[in-house]
Amino acid sequence: MPSRAKEGAVVSVIRPSRRSLLAMAAGAAATPGCASVMPQGLFRSSSLSDAEPDNEFSVSRLQADLETYDGFGIHRSGSQADRDTVEWLAKDWRALGYEIEFQPFEVPDNDVLYAELEAGGETATLLAQPPFPAAANAVAQAPLVLTDENGPVCKAKGAILLAEAPYMRASSYETKPFRKLADLALAEDAKALIIVTPGPTGEGVFLNIDPERPYPVTAIAAPGQSALLKRIAESGRSVRLAMPPAKPMRTAHNVIARREGGAQTIIVTTPVSGWTHCAGERGPGIAIMRALAPWLAKTFPQKSILLAGLSGHELEGLGARIFIETKAPPNENVALWLHLGAGIAARNWHETDIGLLPLQSADPQRFLLAAPPLNQAVAPHMKGLSGLEQAYALTPETVAGDLKEIHNAGYENLMGAFGAHRFHHVIGDRMNTTSGALTAPVALAFRDSILSALSGSI
């Protein structure tokens, strides 16, 4: 695991003046429960009001689960935080009477966060994008050459390429702009590729990778580092890029909970791993699955319940694929499969010239998909939940992410949600990006959606 100093080095999104600090403080005071603006901890949530009694769906319970998950640390597959997460889930589910199974699989050790660039006395700390190179290739010395998806500006064989991605909420190295850059760097036999990732937070963005696909040695730069890097490239200077070397493989685990009750099974799955603390990315899905666990057992005694926390997510859903292939019951035995994806209850923000300012509402960049006619049963319960209130029909054309893996495996009674909030895949995805108050209405909506989807079969 990275050192405490490195792990806590959250990049500030806002560098406010005294006047803007006072304005933000006044706004936070006027809206109790406002989560912290960057830097981390600038404001604290002082009051949380529960819309329901102190039960598994209460704001306070969900808030506590979110804080526990965030507090474990950086959740890369097989890391200490990843192990702590699956043990925490297992302990809770075992206490509820579920039978627990840990499903092991091998993953790379990607715990090191940073790479270092040096050029004639100027230095920059970059994000080290996995996969990491063999030790012999971990340090590269070569000219820095500008490129885009159409090719480098000059001869680039053996160079270190520098490219700027489009402004976006980036997620995967396999999406079109990033895959093009990877293939270009490989074709040019570049020693490495540095990608600037413009996005709403101003931080560098980690990219999900497919363990079976080739990638160049890659480092990620924040938008604020672009001018320095371009100036170095235009000067023709050689640079030294030091990446963390690859380490031996290690073991990650899916955690699976079962309660036998009948031939038909209700399945709830959510990923548990990711590149960073993943509070807004992964936290709400985990908190909602924990809330559903006791409720499902009480509400559907004549059905079997299967819950799965899936590691390996940042490896293009590796843990999900392994679970689907080896542990999921056949389609004909699945009454309903609910998959809780990324960013389903993350905070919305105002984007201003001084940075991001927090809102009390959820980021609408989240999508709800349900196989017909489930989408009609789900839609009424999502009213007022921005983004989720549009229940898209889940089809081969609309499905994406882990839902696509489940759908492609032939499962029909399927619904789920996923999104990409502003802090998706960045170091700053901490507790200021979500809350129990944002998660509670989503949890209740999925609870009621399950009831509607299975009405008449309880």
User: So, the CATH homologous superfamily of the largest domain?
Assistant: Zn peptidases
Radius of gyration: 22 Å
CATH class of the largest domain: Alpha Beta
**Quick one: how many beta strands?**
18
CATH fold topology of the largest domain:
Aminopeptidase
Anisotropy-based shape: elongated
State the secondary-structure class: alpha/beta
Strand order of the largest sheet: 1-10-12-11-13-18-16-17
| Strand content bin | 15-25%
CATH-derived architecture of the largest domain: 3-Layer(aba) Sandwich
Kindly report how far apart the N and C termini lie: 45 Å
**How many independent structural domains?**
2
> Helical content, roughly?
25-40%
| Total of helices | 11
Question: How do the helices and strands follow one another from N- to C-terminus?
Answer: HHHHEEEEEEHEEHEEEHEHEEEEHEHEH
Regions with pLDDT < 50 over 5+ consecutive residues?
A: 1-49
What does this entry look like structurally?
This protein has 458 residues and is an alpha/beta fold. The chain folds into two domains: 23-108 and 250-453, Zn peptidases (Aminopeptidase, 3-Layer(aba) Sandwich); 114-242, Glucose Oxidase, domain 1, CATH 3.50.30.30. Helix content is 27%, strand content 25%. The protein has eleven helices and 18 strands. It has helices spanning 4-7, 18-30, 59-71, 80-95, 176-187, 226-235, 283-299, 318-326, 374-378, 401-408, 436-453, and strands spanning 99-107, 114-119, 122-129, 139-148, 151-152, 160-164, 192-196, 218-221, 238-242, 250-259, 265-271, 304-310, 334-340, 347-352, 355-362, 366-370, 391-393, 414-419. The strands form three sheets. It has an eight-stranded mixed sheet, sandwiched between helices. A seven-stranded mixed barrel has the order 2-3-8-7-6-4-9. The longest helix is centred in the C-terminal third of the chain and has 18 residues, at 436-453. The chain starts with a helix and ends in a 5-residue tail after the last helix. The model is unreliable at 1-49 (pLDDT under 50).
